[in-house]
Write a structure and sequence with these properties.
Blueprint: E1 3-11, E2 16-23, E3 26-31, E4 34-41, E5 47-50, E6 54-58, E7 63-68, E8 81-84
Antiparallel strand pairs: 1-2, 1-8, 2-3, 3-4, 4-5, 5-6, 6-7, 7-8
Length: about 90
């Protein structure tokens, strides 16, 4: 998945998330006025990106799931929120 064009998602909690996929190895997320660079991580299905605090898991560009990573977690234990591109 590579697009330099921002994709805007509306999340289940009412927040707006913007994602830019500059290459197949990373995503830049803008959420609550803050920018986060996440890198690709192992996943059995879809594309999963992580940094020290967030996990962004997508299947295509139309829907993703944003979850908080707790200290020491490689995969988020929190269910997270679903975000959909209108």
């Amino acid at each position: 998945m590579t697009t330099a064009k921002p994709v805007t998602y509306i999340c289940g909690d009412g927040r707006t998330l913007q994602a830019v996929y500059p290459n197949t190895n990373s995503v830049v997320l803008t959420l609550d006025g803050q920018t986060h660079l996440l890198h690709i991580a192992r996943s059995a299905d879809g594309a999963r990106y992580v940094d020290d605090h967030w996990q962004w898991w997508t299947k295509g560009l139309h829907q993703g799931q944003l979850a908080t990573l707790e200290a020491g977690e490689a995969v988020a234990s929190a269910a997270g929120i679903v975000c959909t591109a209108p």
